[in-house]
Specification:
Layout (H helix, E strand, L loop, with lengths): L1 H11 L6 H11 L5 H26 L10
């Protein structure tokens, strides 16, 4: 999903962005949502995106975590 990928880049690329800052930006785009809703959505979306990366990352590394598979 391109939106989840963009969210991960926003969070972790460079110095990254705090979840609070991301929620503030989301709240500015959706003023009808309260700030707490935006914080919860950002948190849940990040958890989902990180979980989706968990299995491919695990499969890419061997049991020792030292060698890349393939």
């Amino acid at each position: 999903n391109p939106e989840l990928k963009a969210l991960l880049h926003q969070r972790y690329e460079g110095r990254g962005m705090s979840k609070r800052k991301m929620a503030k930006l989301l709240n500015e785009r959706h003023p009808d949502w309260c700030y707490a809703t935006c914080r919860n959505r950002i948190d849940n979306w990040l958890k989902l995106a990180e979980f989706m990366l968990c299995l491919p990352m695990r499969d890419a590394f061997d049991a020792d975590g030292k060698e890349i598979a393939g």
